[in-house]
Amino acid sequence: MLKKIVPMAAILASLLTLGGCATESAKPMPQPSLYQRLGGRQAIDAVVSDAIGNISADARINQRFAGIGGTQLNKNLVDLLCARSGGPCIYTGLDMSAAHEGMNIRNDEFDALVQDMVKSLDRFKVPAREKGEVLFILGKMKNAVIGH
Fold first, then answer.
1. CA–CA distance from 21 to each of 27, 30, 99, 145 (Å)?
2. What is the CATH number of the domain that holds 95?
3. Is residue 13 part of a domain?
4. Which residues are within 8 A (CB) of 129 and not within 5 positions of it... i.e. 6 or more apart?
5. Which of 4, 103, 107, 132 has the fewest Cβ atoms nearer than 10 Å?
6. From first to last of its 148 residues, what are the pLDDT tens digits of the chain?
7. Is 11 exposed, middle or buried (0-12, 13-18, 19+ CB in 10 A)?
8. Neighbour count for residue 28 (Cβ, 10 Å)
């Protein structure tokens, strides 16, 4: 009887050891950040540049951006999206409330800007998940932008 127990114990010990290895390899891999999934700064810059073109052509809101340097707007928006999507960028512009103080931006104007951004996200075929996350980032800023 002892001969049967020893091999069973060895088999059980081997299985437990293998199970421990399986558990180690079954740990979930860290998920890439939104920044990485979007394609990094270069991809964010391409979408933002395209969106600024949309905004410039959008009669609903383009007057809001008259006199604002497109280069600075592009840099600030790229840095903002880059930083808020988990990228290495540092946003050095004003906070959203201060940046829009005295502008009295309306809901429909904010929505128009988001629609212009969506056109660019679609043009660059940004997947639905990532597009939704970018729109969530923009949506979180709405209260800081509207009505100040």
1. 11, 19, 54, 52
2. 1.10.490.10
3. no
4. 37
5. 4
6. 444 445 555 544 554 455 555 555 677 889 999 999 999 999 999 999 999 999 999 999 999 988 887 788 899 999 999 999 999 999 999 999 999 999 999 999 999 999 999 999 999 999 999 999 999 999 999 999 999 8
7. exposed
8. 5
The structural domain count of the chain equals 1
Distance of alpha carbon 123 from alpha carbon 27, whole angstroms: 36
Tokens, residue 132: 């939704």
Both structure tokens of 136: 């969530």
* Residue 8 structure tokens: 């069973």
Find tokens 């009505």 and name the residue.
147
* 63 within domain boundaries: yes
Domain annotation covers residue 15? no
Q: Give kind and range of the element (H or E) at residue 131.
A: helix 128-145
